[in-house]
Amino acid sequence: MKKHTVRFSLNGTPREITVNANELLLNVTREQEKLTGTKYGCGIGECGACTVHVDGRPTLSCLQLAVAVDGAEVVTIEGLAKGRELDPLQKSFLDNNAVQCGYCTPGMIMIGRNLLDENPNPTEEEVRTHMRGQLCRCTGYASITKAVMGAGKCATGDFKIPAE
Amino acid sequence: MSATQLKSVGDSSWRKDGISKVTGSEQYAPDISVDRMWYGRVLRSPHAHARIVSVDTSAAEAMGAVCLTFADVPQTRYNERIVSTPPCLYRDRTVVADKARHVGEALVGVAAPTEELAEKALRSIKIEYEVLQVITTIEQAQKDGADPVHDTVLLNGEDKPIINNVAVQRTIDVGDTVKGFAESDFVIERSFKTGRIYHAQMEPKTVICQPEADGGITVWASTQSIHNTRILLGQIYGLPLNKVNVKKVALGGAFGSSIQMNSVTPIGVGLALKSGHPVKIATTREEDMHDHVRYPSEIKLKLGMKKDGTLIAGEMHAFEFKLKQYVGLGGTFWGQGPASKCIIRSDGVPELLKTGAELINWDKRPKPGSQTGRMRRGIGMARGFHTSGVGHAKASGAEMIDYSGAIVKLNEDGTVDLIQSLMDHGGGTNHAISKIVAEELGVPNHMVGISPCDTRTSLYDVTTHATRGIYAGGAAALKAAKAVKEQIIDWAARVLDVLPESLVIEPDQELGQGVIYCPNLAERRMTVGDLARYLHLNSLGTISSSQSMRQVNCPPAYVSYYVDVEVDTDTGQIHSRRAALGSDCGTVVNPALASGQLIGGLSKGQGYALTEDNQWDPVTGELASKGFWVDGKTPSISESPLVADIETHFAHTYEPTGPFGAKGLGEAAKNPAAAAFANAVYSALGIRFYELPITPEKVLAALAEQAAGKTARAARQAPAPVPVAE
Ligand code: FES
Ligand code: FES
User: Fold this and answer.
1) Considering only CA atoms, which residue is closest to atom 3 of ligand 2?
2) Residue B613 is part of which domain span?
3) Deepest of A125, A142, B335, B400, by most Cβ within 10 A of its Cβ?
4) What ipTM describes this predicted complex?
């Protein structure tokens, strides 16, 4: 199979990779780039566990061909925190105990972050509409909804400092 | 000790694995890869029932792949779940099968340097099948002349024949049911059916096996028990256990589906041993959906009761035994099917029922059948439980294995390592247990770290199942913490020159340390860190303790569900609108996470009650969903009640046999859900449903029947079941 060179930015770092035409972005990030935070849940667009940002848009990386991100900016869950400073939504997930097994969490945070970028104070209905494609088997979604709606507070520094 | 005096237990600070989970750095089995690793794939049966006549792997091998067929694997049968002792272990599995017993059964393992080549090699394998009768129902299986799914089963070394596909029958008689029914004011007879639920854990089952130079293996696997996985792999491949090392990695949910050793685990190991390369098998969602399921059940139930609702007689013919009667404080309680018994020493049921009823407005619930519009509301309740662990469960001459171990050690700066093989499914069990250790040692919660570990460096833990994590695993860690505390006090008494009895340890949040002091001699004090450094610099050794323990009680963790539904009588859809979920888990160790587990239980319970059914096509035996998750109908955010409409509450109880008064919560969180939803639908429509899931199709059919007057007649003949049996 003919190999293709793809140049893109991954979490702010320029990358140049060689891939087959049928290579998926999910496999590139997980296997070639060793960024395993993005999860495989179904591989066919059913669960949202593989959500990343491509040029700011939430994208199911299991359905995205790697060659198509040539020239794009890709951000994965690993690119959200600024150094040791967590993204407000990551803090909000912790404050609201929106993490159980954590397998859906990276995808949930990436889609939630995208909603907040467009709409910093979403209503519950807006959160439900935006996140309806994400599955979580553990939490029942209430804590996740609260985490997304409450992230605004975390952004202003008005979040609970953890006891530890 | 009352809950108000506790420092770490009961607080809701960030879970210790939280930061790694929100940043994507937590490692689950699918995230592990090692150098020189090959990729494994599994050839699965397209037939529901077929004998393998021949397998030709030559083309695959010519491509450079390594194949694992029935001829390559040890032929001794095993039971992939080893929670019971051998008298009760029915062994019917081999690493790969010589006969397909369901669509998707693993028949040949293939490994190759790349995933692509492995897949290509897999497709080149030729299998000749002798197709057998497809059996998808209990009736079909039991018919005379039905093709046997398993010809025999191995029990205690004896090859037992299976007649009409029934491997074992158990009869349990307690008391005199004839007399009981004669004395009953009401007798109700009903049949119930439950659906075939896919666990739908987010992490598809994965294994990585690395062969070691000394002939041993290192294994990373999705599992609820690293030690049981190790024991089984040792047995199957004839390896001494000190050559089998199973690593503890985070688990992306399980819900019981990893209580057994997963089917891909021994295949990955077989491929690694045969190829000499590390091999990783990461299943696809489609494979995973074909691989495990919560079995459907059919239950015929006959109950006799007094006018006040007291149940006095019961008879049940079930393919899952589930008769559980509520008894109050001091009563003997049966749990875990017929196998385990306990004495109730904490009982929060009356409080749960009262609080739940108030929260949902139980007194204002619609009278069944009183509404007429398109949208009809209904409120239902149900109560359930799960024992916390299995205690001293015995059944048919076998024992349930139930013990946990923990190592607690004091580091040279006063921090503490908790080393425990017990798996956390996501509910926060490990975090909770680290808080129990902090509480006992008198150090701040953050001082106790949860160590990565493996089977070589940890003590045995049976498995995280049966709502036992905090109650049984926490008790083992508490035992180790107590021993460590004794040593700390002992050494501190010598250093401070006071009697050990005069010393206490308490967390000092400002210092961020545990402080050891003598309450009436203010100057005799030091931090746990000071002591640890002193011991280290004077070469006095490490304070540590390694303890195992079995809980002999298994107190029921009670849960109450009050749910409010809205039924659309045009579409038949049932919407879950409000819920009040109560738990009696004794002392609540992680309040926010416990509440989250209840809400998660509501979501899973709602799926079980209303939508999920992973049925097989009765003719082909194929999965009706074909492995598409959306067709498995796992509830999404859109089907969940609004945040403000879900209330959780906890009973104020203290279980004397539990660590700091704690019992379990996990599985109990979902148990009453289906009954509560069915009762709510009855309140909305005046129609009883006895078969899960209560799909729109069933609702519309029942409404049409009701309109035709049939249901009304049937309802008049049977007394309405009593909601609470007290
Ligand atoms: S893995 Fe991409 S949507 Fe499920
Ligand atoms: S936290 Fe486990 S799937 Fe969402």
Assistant:
1) A136
2) 322-394+553-688
3) A142
4) 0.96
